[in-house]
Specification:
The complex is a heterodimer. By secondary structure, chain A is of the alpha/beta class. Chain A is built from 17 helices and eight strands. In chain A, helix 1 packs antiparallel against helix 11. Chain B has three domains: 184 residues, P-loop containing nucleotide triphosphate hydrolases (Rossmann fold), CATH 3.40.50; 89 residues, no CATH class; 118 residues, Arc Repressor Mutant, subunit A (Orthogonal Bundle). Helices cover 57% and strands 9% of the residues of chain B. Chain B has a five-stranded parallel beta sheet with strand order 2-5-6-1-7, sandwiched between helices. The N and C termini of chain B lie far apart (64 Å). The relative contact order of chain B is 0.10. Classes of the chains: A alpha/beta, B alpha/beta. At the A-B interface, helix 1, helix 4, helix 11, helix 12 and helix 13 of A face helix 3, helix 5, helix 7, helix 9 and helix 11 of B. Chain B: One of its GO terms (molecular function) is ATP hydrolysis activity. Chain B: One of its GO terms (biological process) is DNA replication initiation. Chain B: It is found in: Nucleus. Chain B: It holds the Pfam family ORC4_C.
């Protein structure tokens, strides 16, 4: 059985899925990250640049490279897809010559060299090993063919195509420079200085200087993005959206986060809805605030509060040992001596060493402590993974009860 | 068997009663996964609701999601998920709508194996029997293509990743990236649920993987109070109302009630609760007492609990020391003295031998005197038991003479003293010597 003769698919459901009914459900469907709008708000400038770059090359029938960078969640891939959709529309109106679009993603390849195979498969439908595919592609882009249409190649997650010899990257950026190739490469990655940092000189010089950086969204832009998705739907109080936007912009400027927070907030609003009234449940500040807390807060303090008595005492002993020695690291033996003192002070029965090392490894498993492998026994080194102040803060109220 | 059937619901013979009792109790105590419904219901309610909503919406509305369940070991993460799934599966719509894929980080140690397992569990077309064909790259491409072809109308796929933190150690986190990416784009509806005990699991994710993860975290803690803990203890031992012999059942349940009020038993449970709050430890603690019940030992006695607690909390080092010969014990005492004098600095065999010689000459008067090769053999035996280990940086691979290799003692003073006190027929001179520590 040849793999390429089969049709990959997931079976259809025997049942119809429900359409979103209420206001909040509709809001949730629109807020899902997958519901990418027709045109992205706040990325008009970048759209224009990429569009004119690709359009120019298509009209001239030449090739070229463009490097697009930006932190995750700033709309790079979505913008490029939108550009290509618009160009395709132009082609359909026969304002532009026809072109072929190929997309590869570094993260979806098991090995950088697989890029060759995938490009070849997308262009011609042929299946070949990576080495063979590279040869075929090389020949294809080197031989003149007057009727060949242009090719737009989108390379997402470029940094994963790095190999020791960088042959994959070299090929990708070398082919567009050939006169007959008519290849336009759009490369996307996260870091701005990737060409200088990772690539050899001959690779980065072929990439050229056409660069574009997507800045993280500001809070106004995030607000606009959420508002545009909520157009014509009264589900949010304005302040609620603003809070979400400000919180996210302060941390990362990632649009996915803002959308996720808003979506979670609609769920919380639904839970809090009084059963008597049917509608008019708006998502307000408290819902968004709870959602932000859920997603961004660190659970370590809660984990310490819920730990058992001996585990709490052990953490205290670690802090006590650190304060005594002034170092940020102690051996298990030293901590166990402090632990014994603390137990006697509190009038708790002193656990045996075996029990205590059990306690230590439980704390290590949940990463409240960083511990060496238990094999090194009494001399195993213990560090805190929480700040000392957090430990004391978490244990302050519990010790009185 | 036939006899039990014929007697029906009336009184069973005593032996049958006890074997039935054993069956019921062992089922609860020995099976880790058996759900424990009393455990802090109010606390579990919120996370349960969240999880239920999440999975339900994926099946009914085709909404993709990703979530992580985080909690210490023994907090009931798998139990929560399986009870939610069991509840949902009662609905026929759900069963028709959802395909489940279960992965475990301990079994699927790299993406290659994980992909094969996913393909197998989804029964995609490149599966023949239980074998998956094609290379790693083919498998990935095939799976992604299948998911991409799907739309809102295809069956939802529920991915359960146990030991999620181990998946984050795979190369490039390819599998996680692709799963999260599918969950965030317009493809077949999938829900990814990860279970892990690491609190800092999100920091393990690469930034682009992290950005695609929807940051829903469901935290579970061992939040039982001691009263609830006692209630769990009772519910583990109480016989169900369906028990055939009502009279026996009533008597037994009254006995369990009286046990949980007994101050002796509660004080032992308190100690157990203080070291670890999870139910798993409690069950482990109950194993021995439960196994002891039989017609000739019809009740759970205080002594059973005391003994079980003693076994559970026994110090392994001092138990090992009990099995040593007197010469080996002498060497341990000598090493302890050296560690005290040089404050945890490493020592070598020669130093230990000298210390031992001093003891023989001043205190033991040749009673405990042995030749040097014999002492070296004893030292090597201690090394094999890992009571003595090579100090860090010293070549463990056998560089340097073994008499002069720097070593460290792995026994605390308190453990040694405890062991000496209990050592059967310990010579007085050794005892005296140890007491001068």
């Amino acid at each position: 059985v040849r793999v390429d003769e089969m049709m990959p698919n997931i079976p259809k459901t025997p049942r119809q899925r429900k359409e979103p009914m209420g206001v909040l459900e509709q809001a949730r469907a629109r807020l899902h990250v997958s519901a990418v709008p027709e045109s992205l708000p706040c990325r008009e400038l970048e759209f224009g640049n990429i569009y004119s770059f690709v359009e120019g090359r298509l009209l001239d029938g030449t090739g070229g490279c463009m490097y697009i960078s930006g932190v995750p969640g700033t709309g790079k891939t979505a913008t490029v897809h939108e550009v290509l959709r618009c160009l395709q529309e132009e082609v359909d109106d026969s304002n532009l010559p026809e072109f072929q679009f190929v997309e590869i993603n570094g993260m979806k390849l098991t090995d950088p060299h697989q890029a060759h195979s995938q490009i070849l498969k997308a262009l011609t439908g042929q299946k070949a090993t990576p080495e063979h595919a590279a040869e075929i592609l090389d020949k294809r882009f080197n031989t003149p063919a007057p009727r060949r249409e242009s090719t737009v190649l989108l390379v997402d997650e470029l940094d994963l195509l790095w190999t020791r010899k960088q042959s994959v990257m070299y090929n990708l950026f070398d082919w567009p420079t050939r006169p007959q190739a008519k290849l336009i490469v759009l490369a996307i990655a996260n870091t701005m200085d990737l060409p200088e940092r990772m690539m050899m000189n001959r690779v980065s010089s072929r990439l050229g200087l056409t660069r574009m950086t997507f800045q993280p969204y500001t809070f106004r832009q995030l607000q606009e993005i959420v508002m545009s998705r909520m157009k014509g739907l009264q589900a949010f109080e304005d302040d609620a959206i603003q809070l979400a936007a400000r919180k996210v912009a302060a941390v990362s400027g990632d649009a996915r986060r803002a959308l996720d927070i808003c979506r979670r907030a609609t769920e919380l609003a639904e839970l809090a809805k009084t059963p008597g009234r049917k509608s008019a449940a708006l998502v307000n500040m408290t819902h968004v605030d709870t959602a932000v807390q859920e997603m961004f807060s660190s659970p370590k303090i809660m984990a310490i509060r819920h730990a058992s008595l001996q585990e709490q005492l052990f953490l205290k002993a670690v802090v006590a040992e650190f304060r005594r020695s002034g170092l940020e690291e102690a051996t298990f033996l030293q901590v166990s001596q402090q632990h014994e003192c603390l137990c006697r002070l509190d009038g708790v029965s002193v656990p045996t060493m075996s029990q205590l090392s059990g306690v230590c490894s439980t704390l290590g498993a949940s990463r409240l402590l960083l511990v060496e492998a238990g094999k090194s026994d009494l001399s195993q080194r213990v560090r805190l993974n929480v700040s000392q102040d957090d430990v004391m803060y978490a244990l302050r109220d519990t010790s009185q009860s | 068997m036939s006899k039990r059937k014929s007697t029906g619901s009336a009184a069973m013979s005593e032996g049958a009663c006890y074997s039935e009792l054993q069956r019921v109790l062992r089922e609860r105590v020995y099976k880790i996964s058996a759900p424990c419904d009393v455990a802090g219901e109010n606390d579990l309610d919120k996370p349960r609701r969240h999880l239920l909503d999440l999975i339900q919406r994926c099946s009914s509305m085709g909404e993709s999601n990703s979530a992580l369940i985080i909690g210490p070991r023994g907090a009931g993460k798998t139990m929560l998920l399986s009870s939610v799934l069991a509840e949902l599966k009662e609905n026929r719509d759900f069963r028709d709508n959802v395909l489940e894929v279960h992965l475990n980080g301990l079994l699927q140690t790299d993406d290659r194996i994980a992909l094969k397992e996913i393909t197998r569990q989804l029964q995609l077309e490149n599966v023949v029997g239980n074998r998956v064909f094609g290379s790693f790259a083919d498998n990935l491409a095939f799976l992604l293509e299948a998911l991409k072809k799907g739309s809102r109308d295809s069956q939802a796929v529920l991915f359960v990743l146990e030991e999620f933190d181990l998946f984050a150690h795979h190369k490039n986190q390819t599998l996680l990236y692709n799963l999260f990416d599918v969950a965030q784009s317009q493809q077949a509806p999938i829900t990814v649920i990860g279970l892990t005990c690491r609190l800092d699991v999100i920091e393990l994710l690469e930034k682009r993987v992290k950005s695609r993860f929807s940051h829903r975290q469901i935290h579970l803690f061992n939040s039982l109070t001691f009263d609830q803990y006692l209630r769990v203890f009772r519910s583990l031992l109480v016989l169900p109302a369906e028990f055939r012999d009502k009279k026996f059942c009533g008597k037994w349940n009254k006995h369990v009630e009286s046990l949980s009020d007994d101050p002796g038993v509660t004080s032992i449970l308190r100690k157990l609760y203080d070291t670890s709050k999870d139910i798993r430890t409690l069950k482990m603690f109950l194993m021995l007492p439960v196994a002891r019940i039989c017609p000739s030992h019809p009740r759970l006695e205080m002594s059973d609990f005391v003994e079980a607690h003693k076994i559970l909390t026994a110090d392994s080092k001092s138990n090992t020391l009990h099995g040593l010969s007197v010469l080996e014990l002498c060497l341990v005492v000598a090493m302890r003295r050296l560690s005290d004098v040089f404050v945890n600095q490493p020592f070598n065999f020669q130093m230990v031998y000298n210390e031992y010689q001093k003891f023989v000459q001043t205190r033991s008067y040749a009673v405990q005197s042995f030749d040097r090769p014999v002492v070296l053999k004893a030292f090597e035996h201690l090394q094999q038991m890992e009571l003595v280990r090579a100090a860090e940086g010293a070549g463990i691979g056998g560089r340097g003479q073994k008499e002069f290799r720097p070593m460290l003692l792995m026994i605390d003073k308190s453990q040694l003293m405890q062991a000496i006190q209990k050592y059967p027929a310990c010579p007085t001179e050794v005892k005296h010597w140890a007491n001068t520590l």
